[in-house]
Fold:
Amino acid sequence: MQPMNAAIASFLAHAKIEVPLVCGAMYPCSNPELVAAVSEAGGIGIIQPIALTFVHKHDFREGLRLIKRLTSKPVGINVIVEKSAKVYEDRMKAWVDVALEEGVRFFVTSLGDPKWVVEKAHAVGGVVYHDVTERKWAEKALASGVDGLIAVNNRAGGHAGTRSPEDLLVQLGDLGVPLLAAGGVGNEADFKALLDMGYAGVQLGTRFIATPECRAHADYKNAIVGARDTDIVLTDKISGVPVAVIATPYILKTGTKAGPLARLLLRGRKTKHYMRMFYSVRAIFQLRDASLHGVTYKDYFQAGKSVEGIEAVEPAGDIVRRFAAAAGFQQEVVS
Ligand SMILES: Cc1cc2nc3c(=O)[nH]c(=O)nc-3n(C[C@H](O)[C@H](O)[C@H](O)COP(=O)(O)O)c2cc1C
Structure:
């Protein structure tokens, strides 16, 4: 066992887990079986409420109860608090209340002001970690009372950041709360390197799509296993802000830039919220179809540069145990 630094110990205590590894929320890929498998192996799986209900067709509370039947260990939930997702706000608040009733105590917030989530979570002893890409967002989230930060770097899947993991650690390392890294981790060497660098834990996404537990189509999983980091491109055609995707023939054919009218409307003070809303509603359908139906659906396979380290589809629990062993958190590896 390596000696554990105080930041890692503090994150493990917050999340009540054994391995400082988070399977981050993924729309549309976070199905209950995947979330539960990561938690059961000692990390923590994060529920994505829209994926749970809209893509995987579970009533929210029943979905949580299914996860609880699969594992008795802690799971977390992702709360997107962005203003342009206002249409979801009441729904999100209701979901958070149900999650608290069902015993969820770990929250990962992204994109807006996490204050209301902090208030609800802290009232019952829960904790909130906020996704950030810059110091100014980190300071705002800390002013709203978050307990930890997740530094989303320029290698991440989903909405990638712009800075390297090293740069983010320098920018955010002195803020006095546990700092997790998100982005670019495909294998155990990447995982260990970020912990050795000083991060308190690592949030992964893409690596867990290529697992039997994830219900994504085999075409999507095979595309991840076959891709190199140079195959990952950023497109703003999905949500109006850059999203990391595999450069499939469809992406290469249609390009990665929003059209001139969309760009203009996305910049306008009054129009940008409507444009973002339009993009997010459209994206919800496109990403679901690409994930569930594969390449015949010409759409988008979201993935980060962590594809470089991903060489096979393998069970989520094996991944957690192998990464944990490599970083000195567990001696045994289940093959
Ligand atoms: C397909 C996909 C969907 C994602 N969806 C979300 C999401 O709904 N909410 C969120 O906060 N992060 C989302 N993310 C980001 C992940 O939670 C995680 O931070 C990121 O995947 C880490 O980078 P990696 O893919 O290189 O491991 C998504 C990532 C991917 C790959």
Summary: The CA atoms of residues 166 and 199 lie 10 Å apart.
